[in-house]
Amino acid sequence: MQEQIYTNYHLLLPTEEVLGTLVIRDGIITDIQPGIVSQGKNGERNYLLPGLIELHTDNLEKCISPRPGVRWNLDAAAINHDRDLISSGITTVCDAIAIGDFTPREDSLRLHHYAPMIEAIFQGQAAGRFSTDHLLHLRCELGYEHIYETIEPLTEHPLLALLSLMDHTPGQRQFVNIDKYKQYYVGKHGVPEAKMDDFINMRLKNQRKHAQENRQALVKMTQAKGISLASHDDATVDHVQQAIAEGVVLAEFPTTIDAAKEAHSNGLSVLMGAPNVVLGGSHSGNVSAMELVELDLVDIISSDYVPRSLLQSIFIISQQAQKPLYEAIKLITINSAKAINLDNEIGSLEVGKKANFISVHDDGIVPRILEVYKQGDRVA
Question: How buried is residue 204: exposed, middle or buried, by Cβ count under 10 Å (0-12/13-18/19+)?
Fold first, then answer.
């Protein structure tokens, strides 16, 4: 294969921004130099940065069920999800598949459709239908009676990269505010308002009965099998201390400053949501992601439920927190790669790594992705 040359780009490198030239051969970065050359693709001084890496998105659920009660064809939904991601500059994703966070609906995705969702991801990846590289992030609802027996066989899945411990019981963690809990489950999951009180009582009962035993079993299993483990919605120092004792490496969406400080100071990677950054606050009424960024307590940003928010959030962070852009992008590239042990292959523009990168034009309003490349091939 001939060399591919990309010149006159602002290259966002691990330690600096350089107006320069990047060279690729056989899908691998072979040279990076300052300065502009007379051959190759002229970037007209736009940005060139690593392909984005997403660790936690439930966008597939949104593609399958764009409204409560609506079910899209699963294969079509998976392809649409993939196109949402790649057009957002995300070249590697951990698809977050929630299991056991059920609702009174008989067709609950998180109780009855997780297996077909996982299979659609696996088959789409194997068949080459996807442009983004897809991995699995299994989200385990601890109050669900059958969560361990459901998850255990999936721990051998070839795409599994991450497992997280969830507890969406009302009155704690993400949903200290019960009104926010009702608003979320009525709006997102279509739980009838008339059934909310019974639903809340059921969730409380299930947590008391099953959560502790399930947590202990899942932690023991991940430790034995060497699976990367994340905590979810830690709200207190005690929550974080428990996670540390369990071998957690990633603290997803801590809801308070105290929890974020405790996690960060003990070496856990702290993940916060890009929509929180873009909107200026949490939709659940919890801590502001930007506040944690400004305290240097955030290591990773996730698009969560809006893929296109990922890149936009980094430009906002760079401006508001006065971080150089080459530093800010680490929150959505190399730091994410390290969390799933892929940093030797992807996550930065460095010689020897895969040529996964995106070109971006910034007009000061919203950064616009111009092109997306996977191993040197343009895919969007």
Answer: middle
Task: Give dist(CA 302, CA 188) in Å, integer.
Answer: 19
Burial of 72: CB neighbours in 10 Å, binned 0-12, 13-18, 19+: middle
pLDDT along the chain (380 residues), means of 10: 92 98 98 97 98 96 86 95 98 94 56 86 97 97 90 96 85 62 64 71 78 92 95 93 96 95 97 96 84 97 96 97 97 97 98 98 96 97
Instruction: Quote the tokens at residue 125.
Output: 């990846």
- Count of alpha carbons within 13 angstroms of residue 254, beta-carbon side: 31
Q: What are phi and psi of 273, to 5 degrees?
A: -95, 135
Model pTM? 0.90
**Token digits for 12?**
């966002």
Three-class secondary structure assignment of the chain: CCCEEEEEEEEECCCCEEEEEEEEECCEEEEEEECCCCCCEECCCCEEEECEEEEEECHHHHHHCCCCCCCCCHHHHHHHHHHHHHCCCEEEEEEEEEECCCCCCCCCHHHHCHHHHHHHHHHHHHHCCCCCEEEEEEEEECCCCCHHHHHHHHHHCCCEEEEEEECCCCCCHHHCCHHHHHHHHHHCCCCCHHHHHHHHHHHHHHHHHHHHHHHHHHHHHHHHHCCCEEEECCCCHHHHHHHHHCCCCEEECCCCHHHHHHHHHCCCEEEEEHHHHHHCCCCCCCCCHHHHHHCCCCCEEECECCCCHHHHHHHHHHHHCCCCHHHHHHHHCHHHHHHCCCCCCCCCCCCCCECCEEEEECCCCCCEEEEEEECCEECC
Q: Would you say 372 and 379 are in contact if contact means Cβ atoms under 8 Å apart? A: yes
Instruction: Please give the pLDDT value at position 150.
Output: 93
Q: How far apart are CA 52 and CA 58, in angstroms?
A: 16
Structure tokens at 75: 């294969």
Tokens matching residue 194: 């008339």
Distance CA 373, CA 351 (A): 16
Provide the terminal-to-terminal Cα distance of the chain, rounded to the nearest Å. 21
Domains, the chain? 51-346 (3.20.20.140)
